[in-house]
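Q: I'm building a small set of examples for a reading group on sequence design. Run inverse folding on the following structure and report the sequence directly after it, with nothing in between.
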C-alpha cells in the first residue's frame, strides 16, 4: 500500500469482509472474459480464514472452480464537503471510507457436512435472530437441498484493508473536518468523528471536546460500551425497575449518547432521546466516583447539549432528585406543570383488540 498509515489491521480487514452487506467477486473465466458479481458470503475462521457462498451446479460460478478470484467490500462512512475546509475551492471534497480486498482459489465444497456447515454460517450471518431448524446434512428438511446446491469456498491467501479517515491531512484540516461533521450532524457523523479521532489519536482533542485533565470526551460509544454502562447504572435509584439488558438496549437506541474515558476506562456517560424539533429528554447522567469533583459532569453535559440531536430542540427536559445546582448552571429551571394531567402507560403491553375487530373476526 502506498500509504501504510491508511492500512487496516488484518483482523479489522477480515471483520469488515465478514460484516459487509454484500461482497463483490471478480474473476477471469477460461475464455479470458472477466466476471463481476455481488454476493452474500460468510467468513469461516481459519487458518486460513475462508469465504463461502452458494450457487447452482449449472450456474456461472462453475467457471470459478480452480481459478484465482478477488473479493472486495467497502463501507462508506461519510462524504466530506469542500466547504468544511475551504470557502471557495471544490478540490477538498472527499469521501471517508474503509475497504478490504482478498484473494484465493475457488474450490467446490463436496462433503455434505461441510456444505451444511457453510450454509448454516450463511444463515447465521444474514438471519442472526435464528428461528429456523439448524441446517444439518442429513436432516429430513435439508438433505435434498444440501445435495442439490453448490457451495464454493475461497481459502484466503492474501488480505489487505484500507481506512481513509484523513490521517494524511494536516492537523488543522482534520480539526476543521471534525467541527464540520459535528455541526452537520447526520446520523452517522458522531461515529465518524470518533473513528477519525481514533485513527489520529496523537492529536489534541478538538475544542468541542474539551474535558478536565486526564479525561477525554466522546460523541459516540461503540455497542460494547452499553454492557459496561448498564452494569454501572443498574444500582442507580432511577433504574430500580429496569434490568441491565433493558439499560443496554436503551442506550443503543438513544438518539444521542456521549461518554467520558480516563486511564482506567469509561468514567462518565449521558444519553438523550429527541424529536430534533420540539422536545428532547436527557437520561442516565452518571460519573464514576473516581472522576467526580473535577468538572467532568459539567463538560459531559455541555457536550450532550451541543449534540446535533439536541441543539435543535425547543425544550430539553430531565428528571432528577439531585445535582440541581449542576443543571441550573447549564440553564435548566425547575418547572411545575399544572396545565396537564400526567398519564402513564406500560408501553410493552399489547392493546386488546377492539370490540369492532372481535365482531368482524366472529362474523361468517
Amino acid at each position: 500500500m502506498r500509504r501504510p498509515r491508511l492500512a487496516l489491521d488484518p483482523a479489522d480487514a477480515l471483520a469488515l469482509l465478514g460484516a459487509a452487506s454484500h461482497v463483490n467477486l471478480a474473476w477471469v473465466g477460461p475464455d479470458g472474459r472477466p466476471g463481476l458479481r455481488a454476493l452474500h458470503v460468510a467468513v469461516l475462521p481459519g487458518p486460513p480464514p475462508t469465504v463461502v457462498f452458494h450457487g447452482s451446479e449449472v450456474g456461472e460460478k462453475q467457471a470459478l472452480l480452480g481459478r484465482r478470484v478477488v473479493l472486495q467490500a467497502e463501507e462508506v462512512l461519510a462524504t466530506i464537503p469542500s466547504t468544511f475546509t475551504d470557502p471557495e475551492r471544490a478540490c477538498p471534497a472527499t469521501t471517508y471510507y474503509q475497504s478490504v480486498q482478498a484473494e484465493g482459489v475457488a474450490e467446490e465444497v463436496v462433503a455434505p457436512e461441510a456444505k451444511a456447515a457453510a450454509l448454516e454460517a450463511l444463515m447465521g450471518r444474514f438471519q442472526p435472530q435464528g428461528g429456523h431448524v439448524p441446517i444439518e446434512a442429513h436432516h429430513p428438511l435439508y438433505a435434498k437441498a444440501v445435495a442439490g446446491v453448490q457451495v464454493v469456498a475461497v481459502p484466503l491467501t492474501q488480505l489487505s484493508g484500507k481506512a481513509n479517515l484523513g490521517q494524511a491531512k494536516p492537523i488543522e484540516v482534520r480539526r476543521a473536518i471534525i467541527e464540520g461533521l459535528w455541526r452537520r450532524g447526520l446520523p452517522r457523523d458522531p461515529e465518524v468523528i470518533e473513528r477519525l479521532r481514533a485513527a489520529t489519536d496523537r492529536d489534541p482533542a478538538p475544542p468541542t471536546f474539551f474535558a478536565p485533565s486526564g479525561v477525554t470526551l466522546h460523541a459516540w460509544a461503540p455497542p460494547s460500551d452499553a454492557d459496561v454502562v448498564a452494569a454501572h447504572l443498574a444500582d442507580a435509584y432511577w433504574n430500580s425497575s429496569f434490568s441491565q439488558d433493558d439499560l443496554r438496549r436503551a442506550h443503543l437506541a438513544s438518539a444521542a449518547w456521549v461518554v467520558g474515558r480516563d486511564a482506567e476506562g469509561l468514567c462518565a456517560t449521558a444519553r438523550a432521546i429527541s424529536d430534533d424539533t420540539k422536545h428532547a429528554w436527557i437520561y442516565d447522567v452518571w460519573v464514576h466516583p473516581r472522576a467526580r469533583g473535577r468538572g467532568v459532569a459539567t463538560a459531559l453535559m455541555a457536550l450532550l447539549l451541543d449534540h446535533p440531536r439536541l441543539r435543535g430542540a425547543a425544550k430539553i427536559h430531565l428528571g432528577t432528585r439531585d445535582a440541581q445546582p449542576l443543571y441550573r448552571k447549564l440553564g435548566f429551571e425547575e418547572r411545575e406543570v399544572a396545565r396537564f394531567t400526567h398519564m402513564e402507560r406500560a408501553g410493552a403491553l399489547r392493546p386488546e383488540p377492539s370490540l369492532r375487530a372481535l365482531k368482524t373476526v366472529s362474523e361468517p
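The longest strand covers residues 149-164.
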